[in-house]
């Protein structure tokens, strides 16, 4: 594991040797990933035919998906499981009727051990889908290597905030930015 004294350049070289954990997520201009009740229908108007905002390319570089239990339940409510063929881990502290199967495993243990194990298990990158609590926990523990944010040009005013960091500043380096004709801006960062 890298120490805090490692330079950003050495960290980049280290990250090239193993899988990266990437938070790939959409959020409103004011930083919310969903309305307070978990509703994400406000994203629907930005689903443009023929434009996937780089999602397909990103997904081709992933072989493990990680999400929290609330996100898992929300994804199940959409109907057909969209991540068939991917190993998916659901992190939870809640009592669920958890039955591993169809490539889905539930994890209740130590987060640092989990991160270490999946980074060595994966041959590609690891997609941290969400939700906010899982993303905040990974970020606070510096277990995210890159963040890809699709900023949706809408101000919700209230909702589930992606970023709550009580542990101080986290510095990022911009890797790429892209804007779309409908006002969506995608920002790709590496954590330093």
Topology readout:
Elements: H1 8-16, E1 21-28, E2 32-34, H2 55-60, E3 62-68, H3 69-77, E4 87-91, E5 104-107, H4 111-121, E6 125-130, H5 132-140, E7 146-152, E8 160-161, E9 172-179, E10 185-191
Parallel strand pairs: 1-6, 1-7, 3-4, 3-6, 4-5
Antiparallel strand pairs: 2-8, 7-10, 9-10
Written overview of the protein:
The protein has 192 residues and is an alpha/beta fold. The chain has a single domain (19-191), classed as Dihydrofolate Reductase, subunit A (3-Layer(aba) Sandwich). It has helices spanning 8-16, 55-60, 69-77, 111-121, 132-140, and strands at 21-28, 32-34, 62-68, 87-91, 104-107, 125-130, 146-152, 160-161, 172-179, 185-191. The strands form two sheets. Strands 5-4-3-6-1-7-10-9 form an eight-stranded mixed β-sheet. It has a two-stranded antiparallel sheet with strand order 2-8. The relative contact order is 0.24.
Q: How much β-strand is present in the residues?
A: 25-35%
| Oligomeric state of shown chains | single chain
CATH superfamily: Dihydrofolate Reductase, subunit A
Mean pLDDT, all residues: 87
Number of strands: 10
H/E series, N to C? Answer: HEEHEHEEHEHEEEE
* CATH level 1 class label: Alpha Beta
Which CATH architecture would you pick? 3-Layer(aba) Sandwich
Low-confidence stretches: 1-15
């Amino acid at each position: 594991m890298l120490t805090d004294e490692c330079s950003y350049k050495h960290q980049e070289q280290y990250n090239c040797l193993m899988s990266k954990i990437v938070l790939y997520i959409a959020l409103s201009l004011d930083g919310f990933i969903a309305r307070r009740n978990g509703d994400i229908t406000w994203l629907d108007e930005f689903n443009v035919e023929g434009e996937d905002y780089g999602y397909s390319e990103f997904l081709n570089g992933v072989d493990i998906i990680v999400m929290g239990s609330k996100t898992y339940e929300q994804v199940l409510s959409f109907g057909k499981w969209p991540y068939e063929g991917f190993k998916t881990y659901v992190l939870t502290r809640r009592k669920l009727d958890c039955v591993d199967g169809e490539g889905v495993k539930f994890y209740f243990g130590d987060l640092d051990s989990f991160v270490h194990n999946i980074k060595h298990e994966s041959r590609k990158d690891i997609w941290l889908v969400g939700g906010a609590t899982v993303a905040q926990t990974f970020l606070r523990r510096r277990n995210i290597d890159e963040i890809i944010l699709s900023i949706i040009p809408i101000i919700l005013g209230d909702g589930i905030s992606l970023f709550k960091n009580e542990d101080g500043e986290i510095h990022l380096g911009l890797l790429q930015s892209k804007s779309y004709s409908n006002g969506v801006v995608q920002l790709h960062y590496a954590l330093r």
